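User: Predict structure, ligand 2-acetamido-2-deoxy-beta-D-glucopyranose.
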Amino acid sequence: MDCMGKMWRVVPVLLLVFYLQHCAHGEPEVPCYFIFGDSLSDSGNNNKLVTLGRANFPPNGIDFPNGPTGRFCNGRTIVDVLAELLKLEDYIPPYATVSDYRILQGANFASGSSGIRDETGRHYGDLITMKEQLKNYQIAVSRLTNILGNDTAAMDHLSKCLFTVGIGSHDYINNYYLPQLYPTNSEYTPVQYASVLINQYFQQLKTLYKHGARKVAILGLGRLGCMPLEVGLYGEVADTECVEFINDAVQIFNDRLVRLVDGLNANLTDAHFTYINMSGIQSFDAAAFGI
Ligand SMILES: *[C@@H]1O[C@H](CO)[C@@H](O)[C@H](O)[C@H]1NC(C)=O
Ligand SMILES: *[C@@H]1O[C@H](CO)[C@@H](O)[C@H](O)[C@H]1NC(C)=O
Ligand SMILES: *[C@@H]1O[C@H](CO)[C@@H](O)[C@H](O)[C@H]1NC(C)=O
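Assistant: Predicted complex:
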């Protein structure tokens, strides 16, 4: 058992791979893969940070070939499975330790507990916000440019890479729905908060585009109101399965994200953005602990 969980969770990802197979020939399906996001994608960037949001110790990694690595789960993450489906040589290394040789094949910038907003998840300790992940990416692009010789060669290389971005869950569970620690809940309605998040995400995705990303898959948020953490905090009766007002707020975000993806495709015609529907996901692996 790994972090992909039930088979039907895999379906949208398989569709993505199917799409890629029709756009790229030869093996592997893409020459490189860059990853942004939170604990669902992190493969060890938080290991050296001072934070409770770390996972480089058991029982994390008990089913992973190398044992604990910093992945927030027992086995592979969704982005590991994607790397396998794309027939990449190996899993994508964390940016924190990636070598110049491997950086040509991509890097994983994701950081557990992080969000679209800078303050999100801070009560756990250090983390790498989406803004900082994008800064690290720009450093990686300079390294690539040095290796490949010039900007044109670097941009040409990056245009062939897959990018996945999965962020926003912690802006809800470790920000908006922790009103004792964060003020956003009293500052914004769920509709306003979704707008604020989407506007900031829009700028972040444009930054990614500006620095070479052309094939971008964006993971929607799962049903966060079904996480044991949220049911524990907000479930009113013992048999409540999910906190529906949280799922409703997340749905507003996802609907806006679908529209954003459509808008990006309409405006940035030399790029392709894909929305991945994660709403069916019921279990959250380590994220169930709120990290
Ligand atoms: C960039 O580098 C590539 C090979 O790495 C070379 O073919 C090309 O002429 C260079 N372009 C410029 C503008 O220097
Ligand atoms: C697309 O372009 C229109 C017109 O310039 C602009 O109003 C809109 O914000 C853009 N949307 C996206 C998602 O880029
Ligand atoms: C995502 O899938 C769920 C069912 O799992 C469906 O209810 C929802 O409408 C889908 N959302 C989008 C944006 O396609």
